[in-house]
């Protein structure tokens, strides 16, 4: 039982690191809390709330995995290497896909809850919003 409780201590230390040291995680966590608060205020149906909750944890988990990949690669190879850059870009791309999925889920659910639009219209607006945010560079579409 002692080692089981110790593993929680390690996990909490890892989450603390993500929240205090990782800029992207902090941003996504703040957005997630804001969306979660909005979800509670709007009074979503149970299944809608669960999709929002899943989407938030999905993106935060992907960002955590991305941080693990980056930290490991920086530890293994301190100098620049093209393969390291590719692997880091792939990990970031996975976070991007998760974030785009989350935007689509949010536009479908909040579109219905706030504006009474259909799911297909919410999907359409989600795709448009993803393209717009990508173009602005907010989802990695900008220059390095």
Largest sheet, strands/sense/barrel: none
What count of helical segments does DSSP give? 5
- Secondary structure class reads mainly alpha
Distance between the termini: 48 Å
**Given the C-alpha coordinates, what overall shape results?**
flat
The topology string of helices and strands comes to HHHHH
Low confidence ranges: none
Helix fraction, binned, reads over 70%
Query: Do you know the CATH architecture?
Result: Orthogonal Bundle
Relative strand content: under 5%
Number of domains: 1
Question: Averaged pLDDT, please?
Answer: 92
The CATH class assignment is Mainly Alpha
CATH topology: Helix Hairpins
Alpha-carbon Rg, integer: 18 Å
Q: What's the count of strands?
A: 0
GO molecular function: ATP binding; kinase activity; metal ion binding
Membrane topology: Multi-pass membrane protein
Pfam families: DAGK_prokar
GO cellular component, one term: plasma membrane
Molecular structure report:
This protein has 144 residues and is mainly alpha-helical. It is 85% helix and 0% strand. The chain contains five helices and no strands. Helix 1 (2-21) crosses helix 2 (23-42), helix 2 runs antiparallel to helix 3 (46-76) and helix 3 runs antiparallel to helix 4 (82-115).
């Amino acid at each position: 039982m002692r080692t089981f409780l110790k593993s929680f201590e390690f996990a909490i230390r890892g989450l603390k690191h993500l929240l205090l040291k990782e800029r992207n995680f902090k941003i996504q966590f703040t957005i997630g809390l804001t969306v979660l608060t909005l979800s509670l205020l709007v009074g979503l149906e149970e299944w809608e709330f669960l999709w929002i909750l899943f989407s938030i944890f999905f993106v935060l988990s992907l960002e955590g995995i991305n941080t693990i990949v980056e930290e490991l690669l920086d530890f293994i190879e301190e100098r620049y290497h093209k393969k390291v850059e590719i692997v880091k870009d792939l990990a970031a791309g996975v976070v991007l896909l998760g974030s785009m999925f989350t935007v689509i889920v949010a536009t479908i659910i909040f579109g219905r809850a706030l504006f009474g639009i259909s799911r297909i219209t919410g999907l359409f607006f989600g795709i448009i919003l993803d393209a717009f945010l990508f173009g602005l560079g907010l989802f990695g579409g900008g220059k390095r």
